[in-house]
Amino acid sequence: MKQYIIRRVLISLVVLFGVSIMLYALVRSMPSDYVTLSTSTNPNVTEEMRDHLREIYGLDKGIFEGYIDWLLSALRGDLGESMVMKRPVSQVIAEYAPITFSVSLISLILQMLIAIPLGILAARKQYTKTDYIITTLVFLGLSLPSFFFAAILKRAFGPYGLDWFPIAGMLNARVNYPDGMTWAKLCDYFTHLVLPISVFVITSLGGMLRYTRTNMLEVLSADYIRTARAKGVPEHRVIYSHAFRNTLIPIVTLLGSSLPALFSGAAITENLFGIEGLGNIGLRASQMADVPYLMGFNMLLATMTILGFLLSDILYAVVDPRVRLS
Predict the structure, then answer these.
(1) Please, which contacts does 114-118 make with residues 24 or more away whose CB atoms are closer than 8 Å?
(2) In whole angstroms, what is the distance from residue 237 CA to residue 240 CA?
(3) pTM score
(4) 113 in Cβ contact with 204 (< 8 Å)
(5) Neighbours of 187 (CB within 10 A)
(6) Helices 89-124 + 183-220 axis angle, to 10
(7) Rounded CA separation 244/222 (Å)
(8) Which strand (E) or helix (H) includes residue 278?
(9) How far, in Å, CA of 184 to CA of 51, rounded?
(10) Are 114 and 137 within 8 A, CB to CB?
């Protein structure tokens, strides 16, 4: 196991190096740059002034030379300064990552708690009304674009509808909360995050539910399941002690990419609900061609993706004793 992890880490470093090259080339190949976008509305800025600003921001260099400078700085732990936020990228990520991570982790946990039991239920009730209802709801969730579903929830449950939940931010700006966490502050967080988390969960749980249903159907038709039932083993033990353990194997693979996917998908949802997280900042950074932040944010996603799949491989051996990593 130790040798396997070391090899995977070394391979991951090579992959990250290749990803960084492609990311930098793509970001620098955007039709415009930060200087042009930020000064386009100011008629007093001349082309000579823009060239001077590009020199200050390091945008006057070619892609190869610029990438080498970024790579050497990144290896020293310096991801540069965000052009949009006017702060070091590492500080921005450290400050706003907990917000995005908290929302994404809660969404992933709720997604698992809903998708796995419903997937098992749909498999047990194959071709019944229950199965058809669950499958129909899954396809509705998969088909709804996040921005459209968010607009529906905001209209239905926001101030212009039932007025149950706020539709922007994470805290009530009119309330002056003391430092630290209080019960009132926690409840305010909860009410503000109900709608965005609902968008995350409902538009994302379809994949995991389908995986669970499909693999549960395959396992339930196996010989050892029929043998267990023939021997009189209670149905709940057949499902949860025998079938479900083998169903977990492909689900573990899906979990490896779920959290990075939620991070990358947070941009639109955070922007729609006014949540100041990494995704929302990343959306603004992409609109303004903020090279340092886009590189730092996307390299974070790439690292999380690689770690997620490494964790999935390790969990294989936990879920299925037959699997041996070498």
Answers:
(1) 114/201, 114/205, 114/209, 115/205, 115/206, 115/208, 115/209, 115/212, 116/208, 116/209, 116/212, 116/251, 118/209, 118/212
(2) 5
(3) 0.79
(4) no
(5) 10
(6) 50
(7) 12
(8) helix 278-287
(9) 51
(10) no
Q: Largest Cα–Cα distance in the chain?
A: 86
* pLDDT at residue 22, as a whole number: 92
Are 28 and 289 in contact by the 8 Å Cβ rule? The answer is no
Q: How far apart are alpha carbons 268 and 26 in whole angstroms?
A: 21
Rounded to whole angstroms, the Cα distance separating 307 from 304 reads 5
Buried b (16+ CB within 10 A) or exposed e, 19-46: bbeebbeebbeeeebbbbbbbeeeeeee
Hey, which bits of 173-309 come out as E strands? Answer: none
User: The dihedral of CA 308, 324, 240, 243: what is its sign?
Assistant: positive
Question: What residue type is assigned to position 191 of the chain?
Answer: T
Side-chain half-sphere CA neighbours of 104 within 13 A: 24
Q: Which of 319, 312, 318, 322 is nearest to 8 (CA)?
A: 312
Average pLDDT for consecutive 10-residue bins of the chain (326 residues)?
A: 77 89 90 83 82 84 89 89 88 87 84 87 87 86 82 86 82 74 81 87 82 84 84 82 74 70 70 82 86 89 82 69 59
DSSP 164-177: -S--SSSS-TTS-P
CA distance 310 to 312: 5
Q: How many CB atoms lie under 10 A from the CB of residue 148?
A: 12
Q: What class has domain 90-319?
A: mainly alpha
Q: Where do the structural domains in the chain lie, given as residue ranges? A: 90-319
Asked whether 293 and 36 are in contact (CB, 8 A), the reply is no
